[in-house]
## 1
Amino acid sequence: MAEITCSRCGGTKEAVQNTAFYRGEVREKLLAHACQDCWSEWIKMQIMLINEYRLNLMDPKTDEFLNKQILAFFKLDEGGEMANVDFVPPSQ
Ligand SMILES: [Zn+2]
């Protein structure tokens, strides 16, 4: 079990094991900086976002949006914010 310093909670904890559909650079960042506990919180947040914006997971714009949100959530995106207000749902 890899222990990392989580960029969100600051704790030294077990790193997230399975980054679901996050891939590439985002996945690398999560594996290096995201703890399992905060990941669980993110999953709840993600469900909220998907429901609130009726996101279509087959839409590449949804990927783009969630990638941005998760990096902001884990404070890995310089200047990134959890922007719930100005987001226009991709498929509406
Ligand atoms: Zn954490």
## 2
Amino acid sequence: MNYLLTGATGFVGSHLVETLLREGDSVNYLGRKRSKSLDSRAAFHHWDGVSLPPLETIAKVEAVVNLAGEPISQRWSKDVKQRIYDSRVEGTRQLVQAMRQLRDKPSVLVSASAVGYYGERGDELLTEDSRVGVGFLADVCSDWEKEALRAREFGVRVVLIRIAMVLGKNGGALKQMLTPFRLGIGGKFGNGQQWMPWIHLEDLTGLLRFAAQNSNVEKVLNASAPNPITNAEFTHAMAEAVHRPAIMPVPKFALDALLGELAGFVVGSQRVVPARTQAAGFQFRHPEIGAALRELTR
Ligand SMILES: NC(=O)c1ccc[n+]([C@@H]2O[C@H](COP(=O)([O-])OP(=O)(O)OC[C@H]3O[C@@H](n4cnc5c(N)ncnc54)[C@H](OP(=O)(O)O)[C@@H]3O)[C@@H](O)[C@H]2O)c1
């Protein structure tokens, strides 16, 4: 299949490029600058991420996978929040607008969203049919999804992937957490009772490709492992994987001081299950946190 990616240079995108090329797919990517580390078989096309992408780059592709977005894990100043919003909502609007103008349109748009869509929800079991939550990230995800869904107006199949915390080697949340855990100073966040959805990077890239390839799949799929865990269970599994104790909880006030508004997201609780993802026939290769973390920290 011929793919066009946005956000291909990122943690998820670069792994997806490797996966697609390994499977014999062809890859084009739109980005702000050419990546030196991506496989040179992936063809680069310049796009600033907020204006209309060059139409000829989308003209010959079958599947568009939209992953671009300003990183969430930084202190949320007013400017940063604006970039988080615009790079997703405006970027997706322009991408869909370009697709609208083409005579030969791609058959599918697989567009990233996040479990942040659900907001803070305590112990409530959340499926793809659960209502949107409240807060900045829920608003961003909701508007981001609405822009992607507009592609259905002109016959393009749209799949929205609500992504949980992605665990993979050499990047993302695990890279940030590994050093404190290896030093034996890792610990649960707050009281650790909050539900903490996660997915192995390999399962996520598999799911993105699955969504593009399967013409019967549409609307929302939760990209989160099928066995939800709390932050305390995650902390225990991390400590076991690196053979170190994890006895020092990080109190909420310390997270507030360190992360500002982002702290609310870090200790937020979302008990997400991939109900539609599994019903669609997707098989998770890494459903258990213990085994996943042992493999990733080897
Ligand atoms: N990683 C996770 O745990 C996680 C969890 C939930 C949802 N997600 C979502 O999944 C997507 C991919 O995540 P990721 O971890 O791979 O992200 P990432 O490593 O931060 O990469 C995102 C990509 O987006 C582009 N980008 C960054 N800032 C931008 C801006 N201001 N304007 C336009 N483009 C910008 C960059 O591509 P170029 O430099 O090539 O333009 C970058 O490579 C993101 O949308 C993210 O919100 C990720």
